[in-house]
From TrEMBL:
Peptidase S26 domain sequence ranges: 53-210
Name of the featured protein: Signal peptidase I
Membrane protein topology class: Single-pass type II membrane protein
Similarity comment: family membership: Belongs to the peptidase S26 family.
Highest taxon listed in the record's lineage: Bacteria
Classification of source organism: Bacteria, Bacillati, Bacillota, Clostridia, Lachnospirales
Record's keyword annotation contains Transmembrane helix: yes
UniProt cross-references to Gene3D superfamilies, sorted A to Z: Umud Fragment, subunit A
Localisation per UniProt entry: Cell membrane; Membrane
Compositionally skewed regions (Basic residues) per UniProt: 7-24
Length: 222
């Protein structure tokens, strides 16, 4: 009888040990690894979110820079007509620098895009600056005179047949420019009364690049 009770007691103790061991194994296998996995998953998610946010910021910066470059240096304007031959042909697409005249004043010889008389409903006109603010311009005997001195630079014709309103001395205002097309015989410019002098506020920007494909593609030659 005593042996039987002893055996039962031993079996109970053995069963209790096995149950305790099983609980410890379950606790070890399902508890701590799960917490560790969750921590690693959370850290990975935070890292991924940080990388995505960094990419988004970089994309926004690149897009903003590209927009500013296009807005200030790459405004596209189409040249209408042959008034600027041989430098520009009819239909040439050019890029206009809108920023340059915020830092400096337009110069003689610059090719500029402007809206005649500030009329926003008309296309851009592209001409070359010949006369500067405060100067007196006159065309006589087929030559251009600035302050009574003949100008030979930036004039691409030996004899100008049509003097227009510049037949008499023409005084430019403090913000006015006298512009002409390089192909004088086929150009409507400051010589015409309906265009006249171009105000600084009417100048859109400086033409600096020919964007049309072909042999003239590149920086404006003159």
């Amino acid at each position: 009888m005593r042996d039987l009770n002893f055996r039962k007691k031993r079996r109970r103790q053995a069963n209790q040990k096995r149950r305790r061991k099983k609980k410890q194994e379950l606790k070890f296998d399902t508890g701590r690894p799960e917490l560790r996995f969750r921590r690693e998953k959370t850290q990975a998610q935070k890292q991924n979110r940080g990388e995505i946010a960094n990419w988004i910021v970089q994309i926004i910066i690149v897009c903003a820079i590209a927009f500013m470059l296009v807005w200030f240096f790459g405004q596209r304007v189409s040249n209408a007509g042959d008034s600027m031959k041989p430098v520009l042909k009819n239909g040439d697409v050019v890029l206009v620098n809108r920023l340059v005249y915020n830092a400096s004043k337009p110069k003689r010889g610059d090719i500029v895009a402007f809206k005649p008389n500030g009329n926003e409903n008309t296309h851009y006109s592209i001409k070359r600056i010949v006369g500067l603010p405060g100067e007196t311009v006159q065309i006589k005997d087929g030559k251009v005179y600035i302050n009574e001195e003949e100008v030979t630079q930036h004039i691409f014709a030996e004899d100008i047949e049509e003097a227009g309103i510049a037949d008499e001395p023409l005084q430019l205002g403090g913000d006015e420019y006298f512009v002409m097309g390089d192909n004088h015989a086929g150009s409507d410019d400051s010589r015409m009364a309906d265009i006249g002098n171009v105000k600084r506020s009417e100048i859109f920007g400086k033409v600096w690049f020919v964007a049309s494909p072909g042999p003239d593609f590149g920086f404006v030659r003159r």
